[in-house]
Amino acid sequence: MHGEALTLALWEGAAGRRGLAREAALLDATPRSLPERNLLALRRYAHLFGAELELVGRCPHCRAAVEFTIDAVDCADAMEGGPAAPAAAEWHVLETDAAPLRFRLPGPADLGALDAVEDPADFAESLLARCIDGPLPDAAARDAISRRMEALMPGAVVSFSLLCPDCGGGWSAPLDPVELLWRELRLRAESLLGDVAVLARGFGWSEREILELGAVRRAAYLQLLAA
């Protein structure tokens, strides 16, 4: 399928869906783990839009915007070459001063179940609650479990170490590859649909004919209509 036609087809399949249903439409697969979910999203982004991603992080210390660029293919290659994560259903034990805590690793289904939780802190706590066998422990134990999860499941969390050029503060900026893919796909699809609507009205062409023109010739025809 032509690249822009594929963009519209993926957008159409994902629009109006949420959570796991939208992710399955975007990735054309049902990931078995969070690392696989992120890997598939990065690969699909690079295939559709190119490897280079220009991103903006917000410094938590002074709120300055920090621009940075990553390579989606390099990130995916690093994740694919890493160690395999244990199964999400497998239980792990964290020894604490109080009592051993049993936990499992989160999977895509856990993210889907919490799709309506928008606050990051509430989301993190709700995700831990789903993965801990028993009531939530104190903050120190929760932090320890979170660190243990990241160590057991490399690639489940995609983040980048940034340094603010204004205040010199450093922080770790998280990235959700699936959300990034959906945001870019929606923007590209809406732009394409706008071009199709203008050219269809101006020249009477079908959507297929307009997409087959290619971006350069399509832009030239749009300029002629605007002249």
Descriptive overview:
The mean pLDDT is 89. The chain has 10 helices and 6 strands. A hairpin with a 6-residue loop joins strand 1 (52-58) and strand 2. The strands form 3 sheets. Strands 1-2 form a two-stranded antiparallel sheet. A two-stranded antiparallel sheet has the order 3-4. The chain has a domain at 1-53 and 65-85 and 176-227. It is α+β, with helices and mostly antiparallel strands and 227 residues long. The radius of gyration is 21 Å and the shape is elongated.
Overall structural class, as computed from helix and strand content, comes to alpha+beta
What is the string of SSEs from the N terminus onward? Answer: HHHEEHEEHHHEEHHH
* Order of strands in the sheet with most strands: 1-2
Query: Strand-residue fraction?
Result: 5-15%
Mean of residue pLDDT values = 89
* Total DSSP helices: 10
Estimated radius of gyration? 21 Å
Task: Give the low-pLDDT segments.
Answer: none
How many individual β-strands?
Answer: 6
Q: How far apart are the first and last residues' alpha carbons, in Å?
A: 33 Å
User: Approximately how much helix is present in the residues?
Assistant: 40-55%
* Shape label: elongated
